[in-house]
Records
---
Amino acid sequence: MPSSHVAEFDKVVKDYPTGIFGRHYLRALQGVSFTLEAGEVFGLLGPNRAGKTTLVKLLLSLCQPTVGNVTRLGKPASDRSTLSRIGYVHENHAFPRYLTATSLLEFYGALSLLPEPEVRARAGQLLEMVGLADRAHEPIARFSKGMVQRLGVAQAMINDPELLVLDEPSEGLDLAGRAMVHSLVAEQRKRGHTVLLVSHVLGEVEQICDRAAVIVGGKLVFLGKMTELRRDKSKGGTRPLEQALREIYDKPSAKPRSGHAVAAS
């Protein structure tokens, strides 16, 4: 029976082979389970090498779990038919630099199988939204890092996605650009769409996320509302988000993972 969740990770384990003959394995994820619900902004937090990128790759069909299941928009993540309903902002864009902003959006719109008139209309609206309307016909090679990041946001929105995945969306953006991203996220929530935010900008996470998962050492160590994450159980009241995360990261579970392969189910 199809899942009612927008996305679900069910007891997910992911091993990557290492070494010359691939006899050893790095365990990136250790039995991770959580769901994304319609209309929420969900934060994915954790230190470097925690497993966040692997979770995003699994969600986007860029790799498969060793054990466990990942579903997306009611179907297994291995079913690529739902990818056209997802938007993704990568932290390091690799757009063809000879394309113009408009031609790039038209290219991604075609990949999403949208009608050409709709793509052209949306491209103009999105370039206006991200502040690039006056540079619409210039090659990306002339763009600054911040401008490329703005274009990346527009690209992720060309198909009006039901699930928007933001990986460090504020990287390289000025204050106006960050405000634009926050406004976009608020609009997605208002429309009942779902946003997954991966970010090290804690103020951003605290400001716009409804719930969060904290991954440390490939394990899910916290899942809940932001207010619960900041709650100080020992002293009562709340604590800064940075302090809460530092205490979690410093626990013994924050260690590199290694081991043998496990049989896929």
---
Amino acid sequence: MLRPVGPLPPGAYWLRRLFVLALILILVGVAWWLLNRGSSDDVPAAATPTVSSSTPTPSVTPTKKPKPTKSTPTPSPTVPVCSDKDVEVTVTTDAESYSTNELPTFTLAVENVSEDACSRDVGAPALELRVSSGGSKVWSSDDCNPGGDSKQKVLDPGDRFGQSVQWERVISQQGCPTPQETAAPGSYQVLARNLDVFSDPVPFVLQ
């Protein structure tokens, strides 16, 4: 085989052999390249590893501070004013008869006779004690103490406001002029007033 036999020169046969050998090598190389390419396409790309933290970092949500609010005071319930028909005015004496040296004491009372609580003015200008005899005025608590401030008093149903005054057995006039005369012995009566509401008169005797 190393010595080619034929009509052609030996160099021609060697060229043919080299050409065939080169062709075989090319075919083998192409086959090898195709095989390697197919195998490389079948291999999946390596997945990129995902790094996860074992301890999750908690998300911090900023806490909003509550806005300060102004406290609104709770209003107290409104108590209506007592009308004249809601009250009853009475007066009492500490005795029915007084000797020469005894001074009468009168007690004025304002009572809420309605079924609901209400307020009534019981200040000095709203109250009066008046002594009369034979239909004529003898003495009034307003003559010498006409001023003062009003005073609202809340009265529940059945509540009474009371005030006691001692009469010095003198005759008074508006403006409280002096000197004041002493009331003579005899029969008298006293009545009380709260605003426009009057009590029934109560009789008594000065000796």
---
Amino acid sequence: MKGILFKPDMIRAIVDGSKTQTRRSAGLEEVNQAPDDWEYNGWAGSWQGFAFSNLPSATTSRICRPRYLPNEVVYIKEAYWQDQSGGLWDYKLDSSRWENIEWPVTICGGKAISPLFMPAWAARYFIRITDVRAERVQEITEEDAFAEGCKNKVLFSNSSFDIVIQPASDVFRELWNSINKPPFDREVNPWVWVISFKVV
């Protein structure tokens, strides 16, 4: 079974039902070398992946395959604490003992396990992929930004009730750039997989 990584606050948003989408660029490295040169043509069929055509050449095409496909069940990777016998003790999201720790660490005979190394048997949250499509990262709508777990943010408010709101799509832009560095930052406008899911 495949695992998937999320930041801790995004795991909370998945659990409370406010995050039902994620955007990932893995598998799109070739088209993202020059994202403006490629056009998305949709599902190629037969579980091959999704088709892209190269606009300058007009004859070159590529089949790109996302890591996660519709109907797959995937486990969410998160940091957890293992006891002396190798059994599960608790999860980082549920405990204060994780503050200021560095990897790897062993305390009181147990050890903290990075989410990178979480096996499926230790997972408590699972999602089913319901849809996958490709789009440029800047094409995100406000509705999809909310599905990403982002919310409008109040930037300024005063006693005269002057309020400045940062839209959810701008909050998503900041989130994307905090995770993805060049050449996959939002300003480059890379192609991404838009992966919709539900908790199972």
---
Amino acid sequence: MGDDNGVEFLQWGLPKRGYKWRGFKKPRAQVLKRIRGRMEELNINGGYKEYKKFLEENPEEWETFDSLCFVTISKFFRDRKVWDYIRDEILVEYLQRDDREKPVEIWSAGCCNGEEPYSIAIIADQLMENIPGKSDLQILASDRREELLRRAQKGHYPASVLKELTGEELSNYFRKVDTNGKVTYKINQELAEPIEFEQRNIRESLPDRKFDMVFCRNLVFTYFINEEAVDFLQELKLILKPGGYLIIGSNEILPDTSWLEKVTTAHPVYKKMD
């Protein structure tokens, strides 16, 4: 089954579910693999054209198609310089604020296998070592896929997703584990204490609480069509606290938004202006 036919199929089907093809172009192989598995389940032997016809004749199948359109590319401290900036210029101010009885509330949207929320917990722990007094941190980590959340909660990772960590970080926050003869790394359990994992499809609803910081990296502004990205921002405005921060992916472009201001030209970090 040729890749060209798969590309043509995705270019047809993705926009019908509010996704843009450009975001899926590079990681398309994993999406097409799931779709081929679905076609096997349905005993569809005529390739993508036959599955296209099946979708047109069975509207309920679109929900299943939608559930196959996700990407699981992630790692700890993706774009490390962004993380260092957030730690040294933004998060430190929250942890040092006077009203420390109020927790710092952070949302990791689309947390995948948990690399992002654990990265947040690591930089917070690094700061807390030098900040007197107790600074509470609450991290909500959400994803629409239950199996990804289960993986995140287990906190087992291959070395390939840990390359951005320093040797000190690796030894401080992970322990080496032999898993069926293969070396993996297990997150230290205390690092998971401030993290709440939640199954949520952000295209349907956002959390019913307010946040100081929202990490929405390589998700909405990579995979959603512009109209859905704008809708997401309108809802986000209601739950991002005044002066709060939105962090997006380094290669993403934010739609024109009057209530967010980029705080540095070097990194994709935005601050709520009202």
